[in-house]
Amino acid sequence: NDPGTATLEITTTTTGAEPDPDGYMVQVDATEPRAIGTGATLQLPGVAPGNHTVLLAGLAPNCTVQEENPHVVTLAASQTVVVGFSVTCAATTGGLQVTAATTGSSPDADGYGLTVDGTDQGTLAANGALPIDGLAPGDHSIGLGGVAGNCQVQGENPRTVTVTSGTALDVAFAV
What we know:
Blueprint (H helix, E strand, L loop, with lengths): L5 E11 L7 E5 L5 E3 L4 E7 L2 E8 L5 E3 L5 E5 L4 E10 L4 E8 L10 E5 L2 E6 L4 E7 L2 E8 L13 E5 L4 E7 L1
Parallel strand pairs: 1-8, 9-15
Antiparallel strand pairs: 1-4, 2-3, 2-5, 5-7, 6-8, 9-12, 10-11, 10-13, 13-14
């Protein structure tokens, strides 16, 4: 490092449910943006002394920077200045925990076919639970199929449930 220049060290830390999958971009003043990971350090030696603007960009829509962004720093010759960015990413999807409680003298031995919005999600045991993750927020149709002739689902089947980002909604079927 030239004694007449400074070093800028940029760090990122990311927390939250769904971190940005492709990292971020750092731009100092009007220079070409550089890639930086979601939990990384980038050293930029040879920066001229003076005031500089450091911008963290390329964040996924569900992520926000906790500090001032862009961040203005003042560098002196032969100095290393650290600029840290803390990013928090919220969940963009939600999920369900679907359970079945079967009563009676002759329960369905092979369980039930579980569908979400008409798409097969696997087999739900007659007295079991099945998690479904990665659902977009909003209304979804949840149904049980393959119910034995001597069994009857209590209540609506299928039924509509509303999924919220970052939560796992419990959906219980009684058979």
